[in-house]
């Protein structure tokens, strides 16, 4: 038998006497101090009901695989207060098409970049083929089409990062999170002007003092929080450090690699009165990326004709990305129905990207004769050459804004409105070129078809780098935006109805130094409708969509040649989403099936190419596109007491550039399968296992940067990856011990993580080398990380 015990209190932390506790046709009650205790059988799921005449009844399931003591101390809510939450809150997120992610999933998810983004990439419609990057594509969109908010404030990422291994840390500190909402499309007007998705993060306001320390081979983090000044000021501070050497040293290129990714964040909230609170959100991050490649050896080709590329490098890359972010806000609760919020924020990024890397390569044929003494060795040099890549890129971006928002509630009606002014100042200097040499002769750019009849005729054509981008841009962008939306929850007969309608507008002016300024304006109406029929089956249907627009950010204004085009218009999309949520019981445990059909009709599209995580835009609006697909997710307790899910997504997205015909977009990833699974050892429930599995079909890509996409539609290989983690909980809130050392901790756990357990080599891009004999170019896959073992330790005081 196992013992369940605890103390039941109300929201004022007062004990509740006389709470009726029912289980297995038995029962007990709490004493005058709110304490209770009873026993349950092991290896059986027991439903326990806690009820009181003045408080809302709660139901809790307990399952134990061995004799142990379970501490469960719930806080009961007065019935009148909870009834209001049931009507407004519990179904509100589902009706809005918002996926609410459990913060515990973020703490336990396994992956090279564990955190919120790692959980997102197990959802249908969300994909990324680069495990070293925290960026993600949603339903055919690219990285730049996703909105990310922290406490209602939009956050940004550095501009110049071109590979996942340069990113280091996501802005979001997963140890500071209280709430996570995610929408993959059809979102409300209160959110900003992007085409694909919204990730809305809320950092918590601490209610007690604690410190959490996480240590691993990949870095460390410390999060401390508490209340000061007579509990009027709540403060939380997080410091993180990350080192990607464990992954990069496992790749096919031998390097000297010294990364340093540091991040400091804080969230402060001070209650001036019961109606007014002041808040501050601050962040500082510093990414130092020192990269010195030494050599590379990659085998590719077919069994019948295997080839090997050997590269020797000279030079290094030194990058520095430094960002500052600060936001002050004030929340004013005028009365029970009206709330006002004012925010002033500033974001500054200072970025340097310097490299000089010379590569000399030998492309050879591999001996496939089993009887040969040289079997498996390179015996014939099929191509030789060299290249030199140079960059001196500097960028300084300052983004400041001020905004005000208001929320007015009138019964089941809710009005929201907001206005925002934003000023962007970008200073960008680009000096980037590439020289390719083949057997002593400089290879000219592919668009130069100049004849060469030496030595009979002197060559008078220009000697130019194979690729060359030189630009210096200074641009100011002023933006005025606002929104108004109305929401209502009502009934239609015995059916529950939710609907929302709103509109956004934005006016912006692009003023490049030395060029003509240009102004633009867009309107974005949006609507949502949801109904929960009064059926025996627990189902909810919703329809959402609208006319979405994405005014260009600086990177979208910059073309392949590095020059700014102020004439670039907003990309537009007519978006429709039809969804269904079906909650049911299977194996006497709760499950939920979520299904969504979506369609996007895009116009004025700014076409782009992707190289790793670097996006380069055409800086025009001569493209039309579309995307449609199906997302399905089944989540529930596949194992009693542990929530897991399986996701499936189908997507098709194509674009028509300048009326040349429809071809696959760079993000056309047809099939997506994701599994996030949790389990524990039956006889040792504190030993837990976590599995994160992702399968994505290949996307178009790997072409040289100068290639015509209409002539090169080959796809990269399918992306397959499985990460597994095992952890043991020594002590936590549900486990007590007589060990004096362990009693010093509130929580203590340790575990091992095995990334890419099947050691599958996924390619993210291709390196192109020339064969001087056949005049062909060969695509050499650039593989991502292999199998890596990581140790992790978590302590909370």
Walkthrough of the structure:
The protein is globular. Residues 81-89 have low confidence and may be disordered. The relative contact order is 0.11. With 797 residues, it is mostly beta strands.
Summarize, please.
The protein has 797 residues and is mainly β. Helix content is 4%, strand content 59%. The strands form 7 sheets. It has a 22-stranded antiparallel barrel.
Largest beta-sheet details: 22 strands, antiparallel, barrel
Are there runs of 5+ residues with pLDDT below 50, and where? Answer: 81-89
Structural class: mainly beta
What's the tally of helices? 6
Number of DSSP-assigned strands: 42
Q: What is the global morphology?
A: globular
Radius of gyration computed on alpha carbons: 29 Å
Instruction: Estimate the strand proportion.
Output: over 45%
Span between termini: 31 Å
| Helical content (DSSP H or I, runs of 4+) | under 10%
Mean model confidence by pLDDT: 87
Question: Would you spell out the secondary-structure blueprint of this structure?
Answer:
Blueprint: E1 2-7, E2 20-23, E3 26-29, E4 35-40, E5 46-52, E6 55-62, E7 69-71, H1 79-90, H2 92-95, E8 99-100, H3 103-108, H4 116-120, E9 126-127, E10 137-138, E11 146-150, E12 153-154, E13 177-183, E14 197-203, E15 210-216, E16 219-228, E17 233-242, H5 245-248, E18 253-271, E19 276-301, E20 306-333, E21 338-366, E22 378-410, E23 413-438, E24 441-442, E25 467-492, E26 495-512, E27 518-532, E28 538-550, H6 554-557, E29 571-586, E30 589-605, E31 608-611, E32 614-617, E33 623-639, E34 642-657, E35 662-664, E36 671-681, E37 684-696, E38 719-731, E39 747-755, E40 763-770, E41 777-783, E42 788-796
